[in-house]
């Protein structure tokens, strides 16, 4: 019974938080000065249901998820590969240090005008912006993970006759995997943000573009409906990435359940 109570407590507290948020929203919309800018909850829910009944909404939703997933996958492959190369080679680390340090402080939004000029308001532009936004953090985390591997383990593997490829697969990658997993989890919701930005400011297909159109046409209820959808998507992406990280890295000490 105690374990059931412990499991139910976060759910109840989360439900209480949602209830308080909706109550504050409803109270704010009831204010005379704020009603036009902050529509009631029921009006937003009605607008959301109306949007969900159209094929365009589901096309935009699919486009948003597709751009986010494609950008995340490309950045994962490139970032992990580049991070392993930098982390295992002093020569490559020296060559790439200055370019990476130059690119790291540049926000992805700064690249948007250039991406629009070259690629236009297309899906490819959105994917490029997502990749640019999360590639360097994934690379940096992978480098940190590779450098954190115990050199004694590498030397021991080498003394047993393992080659460079075997050491990489059996020692370096398992040792760096928690860092890589964290990078993947943190990057997942960021890809969604970058996809929405690409749609709102760059015209890339998806929910961000539809949100921008709703803003231009003054459809306040639709604006809040899209924001609500994006918030729910963010929660789902975060939950799925957490679950995937725990499932894949269940063998690591940081994810093992400690029995009482």
Describe the structure.
The chain has 260 residues and is mainly alpha-helical. It is built from ten helices and no strands. Helix 3 packs across helix 9, helix 5 packs across helix 6 and helix 7 crosses helix 8.
What is the H/E order? HHHHHHHHHH
Helix content: over 70%
Radius of gyration: 23 Å
Distance between the termini: 16 Å
Note the beta-strand portion. under 5%
Shape: elongated
How would a crystallographer describe the biggest sheet? none
Number of helices: 10
How confident overall, as mean pLDDT? 84
- Given the helix and strand composition, which structural class is it? mainly alpha
Tally of DSSP β-strands: 0
Low-confidence stretches: none
Keywords:
single chain, 260 residues, 81% helix, mainly alpha, 10 helices, 0% strand
Summed up, what is this model?
The chain has helices at 2-30, 41-52, 55-88, 90-103, 112-119, 123-148, 151-159, 164-202, 207-216, 220-248.
List the topology elements.
Layout: H1 2-30, H2 41-52, H3 55-88, H4 90-103, H5 112-119, H6 123-148, H7 151-159, H8 164-202, H9 207-216, H10 220-248
Helix pairs in contact: 2-10, 3-4, 3-6, 3-8, 3-9, 5-6, 6-8, 7-8, 8-9, 8-10, 9-10
């Amino acid at each position: 019974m105690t374990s059931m109570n412990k499991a139910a407590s976060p759910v109840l507290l989360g439900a209480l938080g949602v209830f308080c948020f909706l109550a504050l929203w409803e109270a704010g919309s009831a204010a005379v000065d704020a009603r036009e800018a902050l529509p009631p909850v029921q009006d937003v829910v009605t607008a959301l249901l109306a949007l969900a009944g159209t094929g365009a909404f589901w096309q935009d939703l699919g486009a948003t998820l597709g751009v986010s997933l494609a950008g995340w996958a490309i950045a994962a492959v490139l970032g992990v590969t580049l991070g392993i190369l930098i982390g295992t080679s002093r020569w490559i680390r020296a060559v790439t240090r200055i370019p990476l340090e130059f690119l790291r402080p540049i926000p992805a939004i700064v690249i948007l005008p250039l991406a629009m000029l070259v690629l236009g308001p297309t899906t490819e532009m959105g994917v490029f912006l997502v990749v640019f936004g999360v590639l360097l953090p994934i690379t940096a985390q992978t480098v940190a993970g590779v450098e954190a591997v115990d050199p004694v383990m590498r030397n021991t593997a080498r003394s047993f006759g393992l080659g460079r490829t075997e050491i990489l697969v059996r020692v370096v990658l398992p040792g760096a995997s928690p860092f890589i997993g964290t990078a993947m989890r943190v990057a997942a919701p960021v890809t969604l943000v970058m996809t929405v930005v690409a749609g709102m400011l760059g015209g890339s297909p998806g929910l961000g573009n539809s949100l921008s159109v709703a803003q231009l046409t003054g459809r306040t209820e639709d604006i809040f409906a899209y924001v609500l959808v994006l918030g729910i998507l963010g929660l789902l992406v975060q939950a799925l990435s957490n679950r995937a990280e725990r499932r894949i890295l269940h063998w690591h000490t940081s994810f093992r359940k400690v029995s009482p």
